[in-house]
Write a structure and sequence with these properties.
It is a single chain. By secondary structure, the chain is an alpha/beta fold. Helices cover about 40% and strands about 10% of the residues. Bound molecules: adenosine-5'-triphosphate. RNA helicase.
């Protein structure tokens, strides 16, 4: 844990560093009053500290903090919910059967609508025992340098100068010599271990060495197929840098969302290394005469299992059939997770392949009968050694507040905040959370001049498959080069993306397949760097943790209350003057309620936001219904409390009202309403699309308009 991370919770107790930070935080807004209020809040909290009980749960934020006196003080200070002792008198008066009950909002704030308490009627947070996990590990770096390979000297100099790379990673050391000797290889190696250079270096080494020298008019000699457009860009960029000393080798790319006409023109000019998504390539194979694949000497299928997940198996088969079977061709399949389907793909496209699994010391021929050559159901996956994984159990109603608190904790209350990627289940959900967070914490937009952005504001980004390609590329590039910020995204960013210096991966919705979990968390802790991951789960979903630990994934629990306490500081920025004059919220339950109200007011008052929230809610439910059948017992729509879920989208109406076109709330008997809350209404429009249609639209190609049919890229 960095020193900076350990700052986070000390923030509440008023040590010297904390006080300074709080002061500057407030100054940024130019609100001296707020600062005084904060100081008051802290001192009030300090007065109460000895009376409160200590939080029982461990918190991963926190090993260091737990050992520090200030942390222990904080836990005591900020845990009024555990006991009525220490609760300030005005709250004590209000407490009834539920010690976490907060005063009626009408008394404290100026809300016109009654809003049920965030902290009442939530399912209990189950205690989760830490299971013993047998972890698989992989050594990241080898003892060999690129210089030890028989590469062109310009290649090694280029790697040193442009990539700042001399030493090979283990996967590179094990696979590159075989690839240079002409073998077909299947490679399995952890995320962020340098698989791109594992195939790119031998491809460029080979093409630059051909005599007579190749020219762009020789056409496509190496074909690299990847599942998403961002990966096309990333891989193409790597090739561009790699061929720099060998200008006669020309890389190019094709991907959905780009203009076909300009792609055709580029194909006519000729390119030797072609990086593409399968759908768009197939489109050109069918419709572009100038594209010839008859000379292809290298076929690379990166993220091979993903290519199959997306239903591309038939497309990839068609592409392989379009290649000339007579000429010798080398094929490489790579992924951090190789599924059973990949074996089929291997059978289709590889000749006498070598299987390299970096977690196994031995290389194997694919025909080997050994157990490790078969994909096992309970296979242990390897995650980066320096990745610290954690989970937080959050009742549905409190999800939005916990996410908000976590973002603010990591982005506003750190001296150097770093970058965070938040995975959500649907595009609508990305749109909603992006707009909401930007509105409250993103500050004013200052066109083309980020330097004018107010200090303390958070930079938010969004990425999903329905965005226009231009915007997708812009966001990908901006977030890549940003020093700090939060990217809200769907699974479209889960595979292969090498976004520098991402410190936190937050999975706000569980990914389903464990493979997806592994790829998502793999966007951090790359090439031996430190990284953190946080998984949100609801109380009814805790069984999922067993499923993860069954695959060798070990996690620590972060206490939700510890995260929510961030709001005590954050709320200072949000309270209106009138609320400040009365009594500012000062315990985390109050603060969460206050901020939730602010969000709900915004959703109610802003028509566009209101629509977005409804769409996000509906799409969440639809996506929830598409978990694979083996996880249905854990993630079943009927386990969702739709009323609580609505709150997590800032909606006050019961979900049964959401699709009421007349906009008038429908009223139902209590019993009926509760049933509708749990099961939804048949008329509510929560139709369950198939898993594949969800996934495909996420990775849409942009070739067709509107919602995309199957398999286009
Ligand atoms: N030998 C090396 N030494 C240091 N950095 C390296 C080395 N090889 C590659 N890298 C860098 O490591 C980062 C991750 O590489 P890459 O994206 O190829 O990983 P990957 O194994 O394909 O990950 P994923 O499975 O997530 O797609 C890149 O920034 C790359 O430049």
């Amino acid at each position: 844990m960095s020193a900076e991370d350990s700052l986070q919770l000390n923030f509440f107790v008023g040590d010297e560093k904390t006080t300074k930070r709080k002061q500057s935080y407030s100054k940024k807004r130019g609100t001296r009053i707020k600062q005084r209020k904060q100081e008051k809040t802290v001192s009030r909290l300090e007065k109460d500290k000895s009376k409160n009980s200590q939080s029982e749960k461990s918190s991963q934020i926190t090993e260091e903090e737990k050992s520090s006196e200030s942390y222990r003080k904080k836990i005591r200070d900020d845990s009024p919910s555990k006991s009525s002792a220490g609760v300030s008198p005005h709250l004590k008066r209000k407490q009834t059967e539920d010690s976490t009950e907060v005063p009626h909002k009408k008394e404290r704030h100026e809300n016109k609508v009654f809003i049920s308490s965030l902290f009442r009627f939530n399912p209990e947070i189950p205690s989760v025992e830490r299971s013993v996990v047998s972890k698989k590990t992989e050594e990241m770096f080898s003892s060999k340098d690129f210089k030890d390979l028989d590469l062109h000297p310009f290649m090694t100099t280029n790697l040193e100068e442009r990539f700042q790379i001399t030493q090979m990673t283990t996967v590179q050391q094990r696979a590159i010599p075989h690839l240079m000797s002409g073998r077909d290889v299947m490679v399995k190696s952890q995320t962020g271990s340098g698989k791109t250079l594992t195939f790119a270096v031998p491809v460029v080494q080979h093409l630059q060495s051909l005599t007579p020298k190749i020219s762009r008019m020789d056409g496509v000699l190496a074909l690299v197929i990847v599942p998403t457009r961002e990966l096309v860009i990333q891989c193409f960029e790597t090739f561009k840098r790699l061929v720099n000393p060998f200008q006669w080798v020309v890389p190019g790319c094709l991907m959905g969302g780009e203009k076909r006409k300009s792609e055709k023109a580029r194909l006519r000019k000729g390119m030797n290394i072609l990086v593409c998504t399968p759908g768009r390539l197939l489109d050109h194979i069918r419709n572009t005469n100038s594209l010839s694949l008859s000379k292809v000497k290298w076929l690379v299928l990166d993220e091979a299992d993903r290519l199959l997940d997306l239903g591309y198996e038939k497309d990839v088969g068609e592409i392989i059939n379009a290649l000339d079977t007579e000429s010798h061709r080398q094929t490489v399949l790579l992924s951090a997770t190789l599924s059973e389907g990949v074996e089929r793909l291997a059978g289709m496209s590889l000749t006498d392949p070598l299987r390299i699994d970096v977690s196994n010391a031995e290389e194997e021929n694919s025909q080997s009968n050994s157990e490790s050559s078969k994909t096992q159901k309970n296979e242990n996956f390897v995650v980066p050694e320096k990745l610290r994984q954690s989970f937080v159990i959050t009742p549905c109603k409190l999800r939005l507040m916990t996410l908000t608190a976590f973002i603010l904790l990591k982005m506003k209350m750190m001296t150097s905040p770093g970058k965070m990627v938040v995975f959500l289940s649907t595009q609508d959900s990305v749109e909603f959370h992006y707009k909401l967070m930007k509105h409250f914490f993103g500050g004013e937009e200052v066109e083309d001049n980020p330097n004018l952005a107010e200090e303390g504001d958070v930079d938010f980004f969004k990425l999903h498959g329905e965005m226009p390609q231009k915007e997708r590329t812009k966001v990908y590039q901006e977030f890549s080069s940003a020093k700090t910020g939060v990217l809200f995204c769907t699974n479209v960013a889960s595979r292969g993306l090498d976004l520098p210096d991402v410190r936190w991966i937050v999975q706000y919705t569980t990914p389903g397949a464990v493979q997806d979990y592994v790829h998502r968390v793999g966007r951090t802790a790359r090439v031996g760097k430190q990284g953190h991951a946080l998984l949100f789960i609801m109380p009814a979903e805790v069984e999922y943790l067993k499923s993860l630990s069954g695959h060798g994934i070990s996690m620590e629990e972060i206490n939700m209350a510890d995260i929510l306490k961030t709001l005590i500081i954050a709320v200072q920025d949000m309270v209106s003057d009138s609320d400040r004059k009365r009594m500012p919220p000062k315990m985390y339950e109050e603060c969460a309620t206050y901020i939730q109200n602010c969000f709900e007011n915004f959703v109610v008052e802003d028509k566009e936001m209101s629509e977005m929230a409804k769409k996000a809610f509906q799409s969440f439910v639809r996506a929830y219904a598409t978990y694979p059948s083996d996880l249905k017992t854990i993630f079943h729509v009927r386990n969702l409390h739709l009323g609580h879920l609505a709150k997590s989208f800032g909606l006050r109406e019961a979900p049964s009202n959401i699709n009421d076109k007349r906009g008038k709330p429908k009223t139902f008997s209590k019993k009926k309403q509760s049933r509708r809350d749990r099961f939804g209404s048949e008329k509510s429009g929560f139709k369950t699309p198939s898993f594949s249609s969800q996934a495909i639209s996420e990775f849409s190609s942009g070739l067709s308009s509107g919602r995309l049919p199957k398999k286009k890229h």
